[in-house]
């Protein structure tokens, strides 16, 4: 009898850290964690098994199909927007081919099991592309189906993988005689910038927000790479994890779309710094604008409309700007650095 498990790729990343601890607290969940990097020691007790390996390694994925009955896949592994621009072809391979491999694995699993396999996919505000600051200010909040002309490789990859998920879920091998024997239940969340108290992201372009807070907590002056009036939507990690779990649990019949925006607050870089100053009065924030990265954030909307998620699966963040900083980020970050 094969073991029923939840597979998490990119397990050692920012979202993986939050998700693994919450998911493992639920009844009867056995986690198989996959990452190219070693898994942090503190996460190991929460996982049934950790495999260090690459989502591009078809042999490795093939072995997983044989060994486990995978009921859900959280496919978190990806190369983020800034890093992807340094090597767009590698990013395409990891972000797109890697996702294809996991979608195929989900199809094979559903064939073996004769049951639908849930595929939870985190996408991003990087799928949007407004033409510049003027349009960004004019359009305000964007819906899931608007302004989908990303200017980054990462954004293009995420947008295409959303389509792939929809294709594998509804149209895969649509001309084959047995086409209905496979079912993937593809569910996708478009995240804003995420801020965790416990990890600092690497390779993203919304990283200025978490970096500003973590640097202040360590008493290190920060050189912010975007203008102080730059506005983006953000969310703290507990809400990101909450949204992933809520979408996973939602009854299929309640879902009217495959892709959902979720968001929480949308301060400017300066508003973030003013908040940081209240808790860390010595904090220093120099504005050293990197025009190329600025252009990327200027192409992302200043807010996103998450009313569909609120209506279909009762989504609501627990943390607004004040609570997110005062009750979650500041106390936890301070504890984290005082311990080390
Ligand atoms: C990035 O900056 O690339 C990510 C994202 C917005 O998806 N944080």
Q: What's the helix and strand layout?
A:
Blueprint: E1 3-9, H1 14-24, E2 31-35, E3 49-52, H2 58-67, E4 68-75, H3 81-86, H4 88-113, E5 117-124, H5 133-139, E6 141-142, H6 153-170, E7 184-191, E8 193-195, H7 208-217, E9 222-224, E10 234-236, H8 237-249, E11 259-261, H9 269-279, E12 285-287, H10 291-299, E13 303-304, H11 307-313, H12 321-339
Parallel strand pairs: 1-2, 1-4, 2-3, 4-5, 5-7, 6-13, 7-11, 8-10, 9-12
Helix pairs in contact: 1-8, 2-4, 4-6, 7-9
The structure holds 2-amino-3-ketobutyric acid (AKB).
2-amino-3-ketobutyric acid binds at residues 80-81, 124-126, 154, 193, 204-206.
Examine the coordinates and then state which fold CATH places here, giving the name of the CATH topology of the domain at 78-195 and 234-264 and 300-319: Rossmann fold
Strand/helix succession: EHEEHEHHEHEHEEHEEHEHEHEHH
Q: How far do the termini sit from each other?
A: 44 Å
Name the ligand types.
2-amino-3-ketobutyric acid
Count of runs of 4 or more consecutive helical residues = 12
CATH architecture of the domain at 78-195 and 234-264 and 300-319: 3-Layer(aba) Sandwich
Strand order of the largest sheet: 3-2-1-4-5-7-11
CATH superfamily of the domain at 78-195 and 234-264 and 300-319: NAD(P)-binding Rossmann-like Domain
Number of strands: 13
C-alpha Rg (nearest Å): 20 Å
Global morphology: globular
Mean of residue pLDDT?
A: 95
CATH classification, class level of the domain at 78-195 and 234-264 and 300-319: Alpha Beta
Classify the secondary structure makeup into a structural class.
alpha/beta
> What are the segments in which pLDDT stays under 50 over at least 5 consecutive residues?
none
Please bin the fraction of helical residues: 40-55%
């Amino acid at each position: 009898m094969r073991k029923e498990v939840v597979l998490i790729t990119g397990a050692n990343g920012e979202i993986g850290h939050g998700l693994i601890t919450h998911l493992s607290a639920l009844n009867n969940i056995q986690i198989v964690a996959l990452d190219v990097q070693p898994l942090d020691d503190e996460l190991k007790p929460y996982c049934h098994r950790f495999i260090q390996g690459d989502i591009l390694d078809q042999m490795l994925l093939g072995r997983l199909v044989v060994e486990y009955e995978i009921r859900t896949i959280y496919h978190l592994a990806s190369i983020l927007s800034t890093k992807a621009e340094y090597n767009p072809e590698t990013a395409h391979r990891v972000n797109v081919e890697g996702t294809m491999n996991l979608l195929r694995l989900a199809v094979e699993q559903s064939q073996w099991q004769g049951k639908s396999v849930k595929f939870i996919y985190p996408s991003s505000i990087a799928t949007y592309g407004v033409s510049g600051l003027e349009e960004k200010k004019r359009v305000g909040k964007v819906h899931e189906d608007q302004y989908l002309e990303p200017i980054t490789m990462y954004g293009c990859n995420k947008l295409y993988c959303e389509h792939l998920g929809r294709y594998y879920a509804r149209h895969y091998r649509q001309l084959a005689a047995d086409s209905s024997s496979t079912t993937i239940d593809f569910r996708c969340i478009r995240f804003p910038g995420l801020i965790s108290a416990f990890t600092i992201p690497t390779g993203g372009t919304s990283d200025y927000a978490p970096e500003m807070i973590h640097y202040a907590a360590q008493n290190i002056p920060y050189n912010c790479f975007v203008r102080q009036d730059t506005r983006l939507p953000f969310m703290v990690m507990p809400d990101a994890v909450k949204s992933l779990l809520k979408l996973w649990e939602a009854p299929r019949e309640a879902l009217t779309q495959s892709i959902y925006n979720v968001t929480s607050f949308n301060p400017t870089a300066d508003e973030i710094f003013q908040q940081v100053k209240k808790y860390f009065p010595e904090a220093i924030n120099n504005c050293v604008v990197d025009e190329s990265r600025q252009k990327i954030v200027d192409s992302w909307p200043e807010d996103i409309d998450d009313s569909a998620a609120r209506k279909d699966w009762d989504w609501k963040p627990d943390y607004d700007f004040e609570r997110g900083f005062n009750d979650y980020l500041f106390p936890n970050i301070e504890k984290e650095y005082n311990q080390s």
